[in-house]
Amino acid sequence: MESISAQQLWETNFPEFIKAGEAGLNSLMASAKLVELPAGQQVFYPGAACEQYLLVLKGSVKAQIISEGGREMLLYRVCSGESCVLTTSCLLSGDKYPAEGITEGEVMAFAISSHAFYRCMGRSAFFREFVFKKFSARLSGVIALLEDVTFNAIDTRLAKALLAEESDVILLTHQELATTLGSAREVISRHLKRFEAYGWVSLNSGTVNILNANALLNVATKQN
Amino acid sequence: MESISAQQLWETNFPEFIKAGEAGLNSLMASAKLVELPAGQQVFYPGAACEQYLLVLKGSVKAQIISEGGREMLLYRVCSGESCVLTTSCLLSGDKYPAEGITEGEVMAFAISSHAFYRCMGRSAFFREFVFKKFSARLSGVIALLEDVTFNAIDTRLAKALLAEESDVILLTHQELATTLGSAREVISRHLKRFEAYGWVSLNSGTVNILNANALLNVATKQN
Fold this sequence. Notes:
By secondary structure, chain A is α+β, with helices and mostly antiparallel strands. Chain A folds into two domains: 2-150, Sandwich (Jelly Rolls), CATH 2.60.120.10; 152-220, Winged helix-like DNA-binding domain superfamily/Winged helix DNA-binding domain (Arc Repressor Mutant, subunit A). Chain A is 50% helix and 24% strand.
């Protein structure tokens, strides 16, 4: 019964794995264990070794870095149909994790042992390409984030983050925005209050209402 | 005669390739072309496609990102015995380069066609591990840089950069330090002048002399 449901999960979430029809890949899929994790669970932390490759089926895992002073910054989210690049990196290099991963809501995933992962990397051209493509895309993402943090002032990045929500009513606290941007809550609050004084947004507890998206767009695209 | 010298270059710079003794790897080595590039040549730029894998034999290539306003930041240097992670990433994903690469001094490298690269990734466990390890190490490096830029104030990062030179006489201009840190020259000059006023460094054109390394170490390790 369980093997049927696992097969269905592969078909629904990773149909390209089934379609590839490679023997090496089939044995990887057969060896995968289904894991369910509660909300808010730490799945990896800085300095930990990595023992398995995860493919997320439901929910998401956020990977974030933390300063010595306790400030956080979101690196990326691993969502359904994705794998975690830091996990891949640690598996491949034998290095320890440089960041932490925490489940957001309940997460269901396939866990693949490092042994099965390595064997499949050697045997399946499809799997190598799958792993590499995810890896490359994330490296580009991290470089884009670095570019943003280095070259853009915090007001520019805050305006961009607000517009990225694609809604005029944004249900995020100042702390959540600070974590996304790797900034301190007080800094974000100060800028939001300035935006409010300019008439660009109105603030309620846990909500930011956008009143003038064009003005925010000007700030978001200003050259630094 | 040329093939003997290529063989010697492999032996000197990448002895582990010879030692691995894999057939798939030998054909990769045989297909590599020796290229020589002058100083200051752009080897890749943002938006360009990637067609070959480079293994640097002599000299170094700096990979840097550039803001719309023209500010630069050094991502990393590819030195002798190394490969460029962005090149690997672009080869593997088919994506365009997200940064630019420029030779520092004359550079000698082995250029390997994307075809030979792909074939060897499928055939050689040694080569896969080589490529992955370099890739993973660089991803960790980029995340560490992101952490530094996000969480550390510019004075902390400048003090760290000065101490990293491991000499009391540092032959770098304010612009070179600004590029390393992704900051503006004026910002770096202002902080260096402050360090000078405190008696921690003395400044001459193109040189920074460290007078009080302990004071700099205090700034370099302060929590943000």
